[in-house]
Amino acid sequence: xxxxxxxxxxxxxxxxxxxxxxxxxxxxxxxxxxxxxxxxxxxxxxxxxxxxxxxxxxxxxxxxxxxxxxxxxxxxxxxxxxxxxxxxxxxxxxxxxxxxxxxxxxxxxxxxxxxxxxxxxxxxxxxxxxxxxxxxxxxxxxxxxxxxxxxxxxxxxxxxxxxxxxxxxxxxxxxxxxxxxxxxxxxxxxxxx
Length: 193
Fold this sequence. Notes:
Layout: H1 2-18, H2 22-29, H3 33-36, H4 55-67, H5 75-80, H6 84-95, H7 110-122, H8 126-129, H9 147-159, H10 169-174, H11 179-191
């Protein structure tokens, strides 16, 4: 009996240490709103919306920025001082926010949308990002993301400027695509249901 109680106490303490603190995440996120917007919905060109991103994805990106594996002149210094608890708390906070509403990315170009959808299907984007492009685990939510940010990310993956992922899936998916195809893919993802 004593052994069972000791094991239960150990498991409970481990769970508490690893659990995210949403209030601490919200407090820490105040510094993020200048670029990523209120509640993580970006209104700033080039800055991604973080609202509704998968917790695992957000944690990995913050760790990549913190370590310098993923390069960004603004994010690296911001992430450099984050503790592991800060990373967990920030990720949990933004993952809990409501993603940008449908239609937040402006007007749809039906022809470009159609081309982008074909490219997404041909490149099996849904195999990592799910059929609704909302993603899970360590893959980014790309459905409804800012179109300008998506295009920059696709170009960066293609050129090799963006690193900091556990697999080479993105560079492999985009290396043979021309810039017009990248634009169509970004347009589709920005307006994906």
